[in-house]
Amino acid sequence: MKESLRPEAPRDAVGVAAQGFAELRAGNLGVRLAATPAELDAAMALRYRVFYEEMGAHGDAAALASRRDSDEFDALADHLLVIDHDRGAGAAGVVGTYRLIREEAAARIGRFYTQGEYDISALQAFPGRKLELGRSCTDEAYRSRAVLQLLWRGIAAYVFHHGIDLMFGCASLVGTDPDALALELTYLSMHHLAPAAIRPKALPERYVEMRRRPPGAVDAREALLRLPPLVKGYLRLGGFVGDGAVIDHQFNTTDIAVVVQTDLVTDKYYRHYERDAR
């Protein structure tokens, strides 16, 4: 469940993480890690506008009063930001965000966010360094291919910087009726199911079957057209999905687990996004 409590981030938890991670630029837009508490606050405010005001998430009293989307993981995470320098070089310019949680950070509270929805024991047993991705959103005026590519450039640079071997997280489809999403869910399970060695599985009490149509009734092209750009971005990276979907009534979404082995994030792919973002 996506909690909406708002703990204060330790002042030294933001900024120190950003050291040694240079901003990448594409015209007036840049991507880098949050470096100040004000920038982290701007990311939480953006998440609130997108998740609660646009997508219909149901907030508790604290979230509604603060107009911020936050939880206990924010103080442990690195927060990737897209900055529009025409609006401002710091908090005023935040137009996109992505939350990044390395395994050593998750160890401080004993779990990843994804474990509220999925059994990730197979992932945890897989060798190599792991990174959880989540809470991705962009301002309505900045939902373009170029901005999404800039976020992926930032993730690729972060992966290389920290020597990450495996990325995973929960991605969302809007709505809580799995039958209305039957085409997308069936397509993903049929064509992009993760190998058993790295396959998350929805917790038994939350498990929703993804294969909701017979194989002959799945139009792959139509399914791809319906998928959110973020999910298609994972697939372009060679990503996989887990076994089972999860309904998140608080956030008005149907969640799927995604997994990407970062050896698929090749130098060629990185240059491709760098070129397109320019």
Walkthrough of the structure:
- This protein has 278 residues and is α+β, with helices and mostly antiparallel strands.
- It has one domain: Aminopeptidase, CATH 3.40.630.30.
- Helix content is 31%, strand content 22%.
- It has 9 helices and 11 strands.
- It has helices at residues 37-54, 61-66, 103-106, 121-125, 145-162, 182-191, 220-226, 229-236, 267-277, and strands at 24-26, 29-33, 78-84, 94-102, 118-119, 130-138, 166-174, 201-202, 240-241, 246-248, 253-261.
- Strands 1, 2, 3, 4, 6, 7, 9, 10 and 11 form a 9-stranded mixed beta sheet that branches. Strands 5-8 form a two-stranded antiparallel sheet.
- 42% of the residues are buried.
- Mean pLDDT is 89; it is low at 1-13.
The CATH class is Alpha Beta
What is the strand tally? 11
At the third CATH level, what is the topology name?
Answer: Aminopeptidase
Spans with pLDDT under 50 lasting ≥5 residues? 1-13
Distance from N terminus to C terminus (CA atoms, Å) equals 37 Å
Instruction: Estimate nothing, just give the exact number of structural domains.
Output: 1
How confident is the prediction overall: mean pLDDT?
A: 89
Rg, rounded, reads: 18 Å
The DSSP helix count reads 9
> From the helix content, strand content and strand pairing, which structural class follows?
alpha+beta
Tell me about the largest β-sheet. Answer: 9 strands, mixed
Known CATH architecture: 3-Layer(aba) Sandwich
Residues in helices, as a percent range: 25-40%
Sequence of secondary-structure elements: EEHHEEHEHEHEHEHHEEEH
The CATH superfamily turns out to be Gcn5-related N-acetyltransferase (GNAT)
Q: Describe the global form.
A: globular
Strand content: 15-25%
